[in-house]
User: Fold these one by one.
Assistant:
Number 1:
Amino acid sequence: DQQVKQNSPSLSVQEGRISILNCDYTNSMFDYFLWYKKYPAEGPTFLISISSIKDKNEDGRFTVFLNKSAKHLSLHIVPSQPGDSAVYFCAARGSSGDKLTFGTGTRLAVRP
Amino acid sequence: DTAVSQTPKYLVTQMGNDKSIKCEQNLGHDTMYWYKQDSKKFLKIMFSYNNKELIINETVPNRFSPKSPDKAHLNLHINSLELGDSAVYFCASSSRGDQYFGPGTRLTVT
């Protein structure tokens, strides 16, 4: 029963273009969403988050969009850089506690 | 000045052994976690402690016992290791929101 899904296991994008990573969730009790970036042999690094009271949050090149009615969120990276190549995990949390539920990740490759 | 640190980074051991993984955070966070990333790269929570008290236990076998001597440390002790325990174990900490992860401990049981 996977409550957070990232249906694209991989994505390849040209340097300078936009990368769009998608995430879907099924649990309507989730009210806080996060994106993490992970390099090989390192722990996930927090990137950006969004509360369910918002539909957009922006931080530099990274923007997260939330569509609550569709239970869908996306991470936009623009412009993409080779250093962005990593695995990106979407995570969600309910209001009842700290537990994060993760998606299975999307491997982003940014081509020079 | 690592925020969340874990030791060891790699651990290779035989079935049936008992081993511990240590975690420390210097962020002043109240809550700490253990996650397991299995061979399918799926990150799943195992335990959470808030101010040294267990608040989440996700039906993990009782061979796994977390210990929090203070709110900056959360150690994971595993008894009678099995082949299926091979995974990468991540420690994390948070304070009212975003969780920050350690570098992971790759456990290999042979």
Note: Residues 64 and 78 of chain B are 5 Å apart (CA to CA).
Number 2:
Amino acid sequence: AQSVTQLDSHVSVSEGTPVLLRCNYSSSYSPSLFWYVQHPNKGLQLLLKYTSAATLVKGINGFEAEFKKSETSFHLTKPSAHMSDAAEYFCVVSERGFQKLVFGTGTRLLVSP
Amino acid sequence: DAGVTQSPTHLIKTRGQQVTLRCSPISGHKSVSWYQQVLGQGPQFIFQYYEKEERGRGNFPDRFSARQFPNYSSELNVNALLLGDSALYLCASSIRDGNQPQHFGDGTRLSIL
């Protein structure tokens, strides 16, 4: 069975400071890993995905994540937060080759001026 | 190009009723998946359809059913509604089966009174 654990339910940062959202995964197979963002009353937008290529994955809006097999982690980072980054972020795992996505419980990112 | 469209956007039903939610995938996408997102939680996988065949089913009761039409649009049906069925229902489409990025609609907010 696959699962992801998002280690923080809320993260607060000031605009212009770095963002770190933490995610650990558990998978019996080589996983595909994703980060999705959800703004209020909206659907989910794919930020980035890891399938099996480079361990450092660059996504949209300046976000990136590093796959660390030894630590079973896939943390999301951004060098400088913008007010528009305030949203709910989901770490997601799937078994490679299958469509079923397994979501974490989410991390709410709050950005203050 | 239009994204994934879902209808209706909001729906209010009472316990015991039946509901049908609709999803139109992105043009050219042949796979559709359905997810349930209860308030404060991550989405949970309900069904995946590809080329009109069910390819995956999550841990939901038989009251939940779905189908995909020749034009690749999809319907999710829920019978004998319970208060616990109140949630945001999300539809996602991808070009084909397997490890393909999934694009989400904005969802249907279902409230059960």
Note: The interface with chain A takes residues 4, 31, 33, 35, 41-45, 48, 50, 55-56, 58, 90, 92, 94, 97-107 of chain B (CB under 8 Å).
